[in-house]
Design goal:
single chain, alpha/beta, Rossmann fold, 3 domains, 6-stranded parallel β-sheet, 6-stranded mixed β-sheet, 13 helices
Length: 336
């Protein structure tokens, strides 16, 4: 059996006894100058023929695909899920669709996604970038595409961005922990070289320690380190004759710190206090409940998408780059 011929706008116009331009207006929901009778004729022909417009052809004509390339660092992280949810909600309201990629913190993955998405004709990118993303910016801009960075912003990046106040909130948290009676502090993180946000948090920690004049240590662990291995590492640094606060720089390490502390048998929060980014569901139901620094990730995703679409559409937008404030949700792990 031969393949059925794909109908065109011209075919629909002939069957509806109207012009191609009028059919195009109908498909783009521009009914202002169209009579009711003409509109119903086109609608009937489309229903009878099961016609669907050729999206690629439309994008070539309009020079817009209405596609947004979204690349995050780790899709297993609820942080990324919430950002993508915010992006998708605004994209759908604006009649855009997202194409998604997970870089897994690796530049080579990020580069491949950018190249493929450019080949697909996306109108712009929302990227949670790796440390090497700056190498790709020139190619994206050369292709005439817009970029908004989320969560991580390189000092070299001169474009639009949406992030949180990592430095300030870390400084504030350490200062308030000191005021709650904690005397020594530990900052713990996985590889700082893969994340600008972790570096910002480390700098906030260091400056806060210098401000209050307390003793501190910075511990770097590998991503594959188990909580049992971590417990051995922590015991090298913690003297429970003093109240010690452990600051976990990101969500996965926070979970390991909590499990390691329970495994060792420390009295939380009286001997050891625990705080970290982000508020995953387990932190509320843990015993004791865990103090977290909560990021408005859904709002970040929404703002980034509004900002990008304004740029794509050349709107006179009041939106600009934004730094969202985080919130410290004090719980039992830090002397609530």
């Amino acid at each position: 059996m031969s393949e059925r011929k794909k109908l065109t706008i011209k075919d629909i116009a002939l069957k509806a006894n109207t012009s191609k331009t009028t059919v195009s207006f109908y498909l783009n929901e521009k009914f202002d100058k169209m009579s009711y009778d003409t509109r119903k004729r086109i609608e009937k022909v489309i229903e009878e023929t099961n016609y669907t417009p050729n999206i690629m052809a439309q994008s070539l004509k309009s020079k817009k695909s209405r596609l947004i390339g979204v690349i995050v660092a780790d899709i297993t992280n609820p942080f990324s899920n919430n950002i993508v949810k915010g992006i998708d909600d605004i994209a759908r309201k604006e009649d855009y669709q997202i194409i998604f990629g997970n870089s897994n913190f690796e530049y080579i993955n990020e580069k491949k996604y950018i190249e493929r998405m450019l080949d697909m004709g996306v109108d712009g990118f929302i990227v949670q970038p790796t440390m090497q993303f700056d190498k790709l910016v020139a190619d994206i801009e050369k292709a005439g595409k817009k970029i908004v960075c989320v969560d991580r912003v390189s000092p070299k990046f001169k474009g639009k961005y949406v992030k949180t106040n990592n430095y300030d909130i870390t400084f504030k948290a350490i200062t308030q922990l000191y005021n709650r009676g904690y005397e020594e502090f530990i900052f713990i993180s996985e590889d700082l070289d893969t994340s600008i946000t972790r570096t910002e948090r480390k700098n906030g920690f260091i400056d806060a320690i210098q401000s209050i004049g307390a003793n501190s240590n910075i511990i770097k662990v590998e991503s594959q380190t188990s909580y049992i291995e971590l417990s051995k590492e922590l015991m090298k640094y913690i003297n429970i004759s003093k109240k010690v606060a452990i600051f976990a720089a990101h969500d996965k390490i926070l979970q390991k710190v909590f499990r390691a502390s329970k495994y060792i048998g420390w009295d939380i929060p009286n001997q050891v206090g625990i705080i970290g980014f982000d508020n995953w569901n387990w932190t509320i139901y843990a015993s004791p409940s865990v103090t977290t620094i909560d990021q408005p990730t859904y709002q970040e995703g929404k703002h980034a998408t509004k900002l990008l679409i304004d740029m794509i559409e050349n709107r006179d937008s009041v939106l600009d780059s934004a730094v969202f404030d985080c919130n410290i949700a004090w719980k039992e792990s830090t002397n609530l």
